[in-house]
From TrEMBL:
Record's protein name: NAD(P)-dependent dehydrogenase (Short-subunit alcohol dehydrogenase family)
Domain of life: Bacteria
Species in which this protein is naturally found: Actinocrispum wychmicini
Stored InterPro entries: NAD(P)-bd_dom_sf, SDR_fam
Length: 296
């Protein structure tokens, strides 16, 4: 079987980086795409770069190819498509909205221009990526498309309305695309991580990936946090599954796929955010005294 060729849109940091590295770990050639390079920063203002991620992909056993691409710019996506002779896995993880989401304000009191920009950046970028890159998959009659979102259903939990619109919209895009693409041999699905230990999340809590458990005292629910590599291992498992089509159109999660494929996080545990959320978070049970080991 030839090595996999993947594009990870939004691979600079967070889930995108974790997914890119885990695809590298199964020997894939990964086009690592995003806006932040060693020479040019994005509005996110973060230090992580696509070159750093590409190096990690190569170190993991794959081939990382950094390509600067702004997925709100059609010409950037067209240029990326021109480099691809084949594409086996397209991971659509573009986001870049966290610094601009006003979760604490009612929508009618939030800045309208910022709210609209969050929606445009979060949804238009996904549509532009699909519009530009799906022709490669359709032409070859095969491939996997993973739309990365937040949450595995459309229940509203009180987050910012623009944030909710983006993340639920991504799930609907995956469902609609599956209806159109499955007959053409392309499998499309949505995927969410659990409580993710992104670089920004760790930094905000004053911890590192090695010391992340020290932050549980600040937020007891952080006991169920997972590294970005966990959802990356979910994507790697999907990419290697000869029967992946059975997931078409579904909104999946790292914990559901952990139960199916048996992968583990970097620390050897199997965090189950879904069970924790249902049995601890939603019930109001004291997370500080809950037995986290039962859910990892």
């Amino acid at each position: 079987m030839p090595e996999l060729v993947a594009v990870v849109a939004g691979a600079t940091r967070g889930c995108g980086r974790g997914i890119a590295v885990e695809l590298g770990a199964i020997g894939a050639t990964v086009y690592v795409t995003g806006r932040t390079t060693r020479d040019s920063a994005s509005p996110m203002g973060r230090p992580e770069t696509i070159e750093d991620t590409a190096d990690l992909v190569t170190e993991a056993g794959g081939k990382g190819i950094p390509v600067r691409c702004d997925f709100t710019v059609k010409s950037d996506v067209d240029a990326l498509r021109a480099r691809l002779d084949r594409l086996d896995v397209l991971v659509d993880d573009v986001w870049g909205g966290d610094p601009f989401v006003e979760h604490e304000k009612p929508f009618w009191e939030a800045d309208l221009d910022t709210a609209v920009q969050v929606v445009r950046n979060g949804l238009e970028s996904h549509l532009t990526a699909l519009h530009g890159l799906l022709p490669v998959l359709v032409r070859q009659g095969s491939g996997l498309v993973v739309e990365v979102t937040d949450g595995d259903d459309d229940t509203y939990h009180g987050v910012s309305v623009p944030y909710y619109l983006v993340k639920s919209g991504i799930r609907r895009i995956a469902h609609a695309m599956a209806t159109r693409l499955t007959p053409l041999g392309v499998t499309t699905l949505a995927l969410t991580p659990g409580y993710i230990r992104s670089e920004a999340m760790l930094e905000g809590r004053g911890v590192t990936e090695e010391t992340w458990r020290d932050a549980i005292v600040q937020d007891p629910h952080f006991a169920m946090a997972e590294s970005p590599r966990y959802v990356g291992r979910a994507v790697a498992a999907l990419a290697q599954d000869p029967h992946v089509r059975r997931w078409a159109g579904r909104s999946l999660s790292s914990w559901e796929l952990m139960r199916e494929y048996g992968f583990k996080d970097l620390d050897g545990t199997q965090p189950d955010w879904g069970r924790w959320f249902d049995e601890i978070y939603l019930t109001g049970e004291d997370a500080a005294t809950a037995d986290a080991g039962r859910y990892r």
